[in-house]
Amino acid sequence: MTALEFTYQIGTFSKFLRPFALRLTKDGDDANDLVQDTLVKAFTNRDKYQDGTNLKAWLFTIMKNTFITQYQRMVRRNTFIDTTDNLHYINSMESLQENKAVNFFISEDIQSALSKIDSMYRVPFMLYFEGFKYHEIAEELQLPIGTVKNRIFMARRDLKNHLHMYA
């Protein structure tokens, strides 16, 4: 097959490559890049193509192997391995240290929201939050158990409204 015939054949099959590339990459720009890489590899390796074999299958194989190679390269680039005795993954979530400032601000927001709730609702809620059962709270505050449940529900609803930014 001459270079001109080879180029013509690849041109006719190139329209089938993009849908396959989209299925692999799930992104339009990445799919276009993958098709381009595949065609460049096909042209540069034209001498490795054997006449009489399925050119379309050859192109799909090049594309699949190119995608796998690029994916493996991306994974290797994003994973660093510590070569000390422990062999930890440096970018793993287990080694992540959190700043306690975020928890401090959240705690301040919760305390502020609790202070805005009427004490009629806040007291039963705090007792429940501390681990008391409904019937224990009802005895302590000398209220019917249904009233205790209702006040805890109302306190939760008010807290949810005050803390809507954390939803």
Automatic annotation (TrEMBL):
InterPro entries: RNA_pol_sigma-70-like, RNA_pol_sigma-70_dom, RNA_pol_sigma70_r2, RNA_pol_sigma70_r4_t2, RNA_pol_sigma_r2, RNA_pol_sigma_r3/r4-like, WH-like_DNA-bd_sf
Occurrences of domain RNA polymerase sigma factor 70 region 4 type (ranges): 108-159
SUPFAM superfamilies according to UniProt: Sigma2 domain of RNA polymerase sigma factors (SSF88946), Sigma3 and sigma4 domains of RNA polymerase sigma factors (SSF88659)
An example molecular function term from Gene Ontology annotations: DNA binding
Domain RNA polymerase sigma-70 region residues, every copy: 14-73
Gene3D superfamilies named in the record: 1.10.1740.10, Winged helix-like DNA-binding domain superfamily/Winged helix DNA-binding domain
Gene Ontology BP annotations: DNA-templated transcription initiation
Keyword line: Sigma factor, Transcription, Transcription regulation
CDD domains: Sigma70_r4
Residue ranges that the Swiss-Prot or TrEMBL entry lists as coiled coil: none
Protein family according to the UniProt entry: Belongs to the sigma-70 factor family. ECF subfamily.
PANTHER family in alphabetical order: RNA POLYMERASE ECF-TYPE SIGMA FACTO (PTHR43133), RNA POLYMERASE SIGMA FACTOR RFAY-RELATED (PTHR43133:SF25)
Record protein name field: RNA polymerase sigma factor
